[in-house]
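To whoever is covering the structure queue this week,

Two jobs came back overnight. Logging them here so there's a record in the thread.

Job A:
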Amino acid sequence: MTRVIIRDFSVQGTVLPAGTLLSECRVVKHHGGEGDEPYLVHFATAGRSYTCPLYAFQPRTQAIDTEPAAIEQAPAALAV
């Protein structure tokens, strides 16, 4: 699934700016110990892979259509 960041997103010591395209997004159930986040999101951008809690990822990203025409319209749609 492809998503776009809709507001600046700090993850693993890096700030990803709004408009950054994210690929390979997938939610994984984390089987850690008590107090660990139950769901993590794995995603990639600019050749790097990232992981963060689902609760931090969802409000800062939006799913987008990966058709070329839709990508060209994405920034305008986000400006609304």
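Job B:
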Amino acid sequence: MSEAPNTPNSQSESRSATPALDFLPLRARLGRMLGRSSPITEAELHAANLALVAAIKARDNAPSFTLPPSNLPAALVPLLLTHLASAWAQDDQSLAAALETLHRRLTQPEPADIVAIR
């Protein structure tokens, strides 16, 4: 008896059946970067990703925006650093520069009386 051919549908079905496994190494790395012994949750990864995309879009489309530190997901900065490392590895200087600027503004906010990021 022969096995069923490996068609695109069968591949996508197997991938969609275990989506959490695709991001487990990233979730584990982000957990370690946060000092945890276990991976961050899928919800934490999703929240950090949404916050990173929002910060990038806001930076690109507005002269200034406010980042309330209390509302930022804990995994945001580690996720940003992971993307920054990838940009460096791929020699994408433009992306690396933008992510470096965003990282600096997230980790070294302006004085309390000046909260806008330009």
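Note for Job B: Residues 86 and 92 are 8 Å apart (CA to CA).

Please reply-all if you pick these up so we don't duplicate work.
Q.
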